[in-house]
Amino acid sequence: MQQRSLSRTLLTKVLSVYFILTFVVTLAQIGAEYFNTKRYINSELATLQQTFSGSLTRAIWELNTQQALVIADGLLAIPAVEGIIVRDDSGTVITQLGRHVDISQRHGSELVREGIQLAEQQSGLFGYTFPLIFEFSGRATQVGDVTLFSSRAIVIDRIKIGIFFLIGNAMLKTTFLIILFLFAFRRYLTEPLGELTQQIEDLELDHLEGTRIEAGRAQNSVELGVMTTAFNRLIRRVQDYKAELESTQKELLVSNEKLDQHNLVLEQEVARKTSGLSQAMMDLQQQKQQLEVKQQSLKEEIERRRHIEHALRNKQTELENLVDDLKQTQDRLVQSEKMAALGGLVAGITHEVNTPVGIGVTATSFLAEKIQTLQKAYQEKTLSPKNLEQFIAEASETTSLLESNLNRASDLIASFKQIAVDQTSEAIRTIRLDTYIQEVIRSLHPHFKKTKHQVDVNCPADLQLTCPAGAISQIFTNLLMNSLIHGFEEQEQGHIRITVLEDGDDIDIRFSDDGKGLTADQLERLFHPFFTTKREAGGSGLGTHITYNLVRQTLKGSIEVSSEPGKGLHYHIRFPKQLAS
């Protein structure tokens, strides 16, 4: 086997470690430079939000698509921007320029509510998404969002010179250290070791008396000098051990004779004890056979229990799969119930808005006709002061009618829009509870307006809370509709009372109606999924179940109910005033 030089081996290991360390450090510096540059580009994209969001928001609000396209082209001309996607308030893409990725897979049609960093994709693209908020009359409305894209190529182009400098610096330092190490190892290790090795090879083991090796050039190295001294000491010890070995051999001959005598005595003792061990072995053999029989029966019992355990596990797996399917089915039914409620809300609001809009159209036609009559009289020079006064009075009355009905339609649409958004969103925001409850009641007005039922709300005017507004809307909608459909089924005039109290950091809500109430059996199953007293009329039985889950899980509160036949239904709801977002 070919032997390798110690100095060469040591030099190879040292340089290998240095090469690996240099390579890792260089890669780390390049990586740090890359991520610092990428973070800086991300900050540039975030800065563009403050620069362009105002003009782009106004363009979308005013439906000025051409101006939005011009602004998007201007953003694409910025060196750090390689692509742009602009969406309106419905999540529809207005324009997408340059390189981009499909953000519908990430956000769907839902708009982002705050600035979000888009992680780097396999294509090398990364970006920043921010909302477009338009403030009008003290009310903030999101009109869309914008996603700006940059890429790995832009980052690499910015750090290209730094990468070349780091690689050149590493290569220069490596070349210098290789030359320095070669010279040092040859001068201080290879040549002195060669001299010592040659002297050691020239030694004869049979003639060690007075033999020793000289340090020579190894005197320049402390370690090699110590090794020379240690080797000379070893030679002296070998000489001493050689003399001791000869004396020990003589003693060993004497000991062998005594050992032969002891072996004869031991053989006799072994023969005597062997007979006793034979009898013990026979007894052990019988016990072994008995244990094997018991072991076989135990294996059969273990195998039988293993089959039973396997069957039980299969049954457990089937039951778990069945439970998962039931949970998924229940979640889908809950979502369908929410969308059905929202659909009913849309239909009711649409019908309610038709009335003021129809009055507005009629008033507008009437006013146009009067203006034509006035214009004709003016052109024919038959206009009299009385006719002008009559026109001014009719125009004032018509505009007043238009203003009141348009305000009514605007209030209905604003209430519906906020309630509809809240019912399909779980976003946490701060609301004034009294105003919000009135908006929910206003959105349900189409269902109550044909009845004589009354809804009384007693809530502090300055009570604010931070929570998922959609949960509050869904809870009061379910309770009000349950009272209308189930509680007042056989009543012409019912009364609903909503009382809200502030108790420290908690909100205490008392909801009651004077409807027909529930029996003890119905009350016990009220919050069970799919329980309804209107199954034949198409009731799903999910309203109270959804309400229970919203109070307990979403609002982290508690809900209690009490009722007796003929004495109405009473809910007691309590939850924290502030919920962490």
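Second entry:
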Amino acid sequence: MQYTRLLITCLIGLLVTSIAKAQTATSPAHLRVDLNTEIGPMKPIYAWFGYDEPNYTYMKDGKKLLTELAALSPVPVFVRAHNLLTTGDGTPALKWGSTNAYTEDASGKPVYDWTIVDRIFDTYVQRGMKPLAQIGFMPEALSTHPQPYKHEWKPGAPYSKVWTGWAYPPKDYEKWAELVYQWVKHCTERYGNKEVESWYWELWNEPDISYWRGTLPEYLKLYDYTADAVKRALPTARMGGCDATGGAQKFLDAFLKHCLQDTNYVTKKIGSPLDLILFHAKGSPKVVDGRVVMNMGTQLRNIANHLQIIAKYPQLKQIPIVIGESDPEGCAACGMMTNPENAYRNGTMYSSYTAASFARKYALMDQLGLNLIGAVSWSFEFENQLWFAGFRDLATNGVDKPVLNVFRMFGKMTGQRVKVESNRMYELKMAVDSSIRSRSTDVGGFATKDKKSAAVMVWNYHDEDRQAPAEPIQVTVTGLPNGNVTLTQYRIDNERSNSYEVWKKMGSPQQPTSAQIAQLEKAGQLETIGKSQKLNVASGTTDIRIDLPRQGVALLKMDW
């Protein structure tokens, strides 16, 4: 009898606990948006994109995607691409591209050919975009170890196969400098000084690892020769570096110290031109018990640690900073078939991660008072590949993926960033230190206010790739004008702005019909929930109630 009573007591306790947990899980998250408390300008740090394969730029799907990227932002979009000086015939491959800009004749005299690199930059400029012009990699004729030159890397192969003759220092720094000078000079002649002044130039990529098969001093020497050549061709050009990897704070520190305090290899004076500082930041997803688990914290720590290095130097307080690659992990061309941890890329996991992580990038910038102007999403498109192969791309075969719609949402957010509080948003320190790993999801917000509009982005994110039904969220907005306000709700979830779910419902065809492609293209656009509605605002406040599933992202756009 005593055992029975004890068992009943335990069962009642378990039932009460289960009910409490259920009530906690389903109780509404509450966001409070104060339009009267401004934090800082809405810098379009989202409007920066990049990719390894520059020859995709002017191909069919590449041009289509660039047109869409240019259209989503109210300001010019910056584009960064590798291999702009790499030797070859322009045939693209994964993690490869070439322009053949520099060769030498039989006597060793330089031969410049800007045909392909012009085709790349023309594609940007025609769309009002700006190059974040990466000066690299080493032409075959200048490399100290030219053979083998073109790599034969494929997804699943060791990454070490990527780094071949293009990654080595030049055998002649003067010839390298002349190549850079001629390139920048040619750009000013083709596009005009004013246009080229609006670009940024930067040297190499991840020189702290095998993308640079030289030493740190050799990179610093190359930077001095490069920066001097850029400034000789156009004194008002903006030049920077060094695009070190996420864990390379010591390399970045040495680079900054050199630019500020060391003797220049070319001028023999102290310092080197520095108009822009760049570094990289990557997350680290893994498969745990058959499920992808993201690690946003790793990416956020990369950013925080690099920003702290920059903050050591008071003279760099206002210098523009760009996260030259800022992504959930490190290999865009590694699809989910060879790298199952990358299976997050096709659906709403990627889009909700992007919303939640970009909000923290702004917060880290605010915390240190630095001038972050860009965060390059190293994600573009891969021409003529399988549909939804799980590459880190924004579109597949010309069809936009859900993640692209987050950038469309950001493009609708202008003016000043304003204060947002949420009872379910992870504190910045917790997100940086431990990622988004606790039992509850991260229901957070990011908001802006302009003269005649306001916008609130809301997400429901967790590192564990798991679907869950929609939960109620209350968004209270204060500081609105009284009277009629028009509310438009945009949404990314499994039912809206999601070409991947539509493709799966079609049976995942690898050769979709024209009608199916048209349907997928439509599904890839940013969708609204119903029609716009009129809110009758009194006392400057309104409550908006939405239901948002796990991995969903909403944008509440208010106009008056």
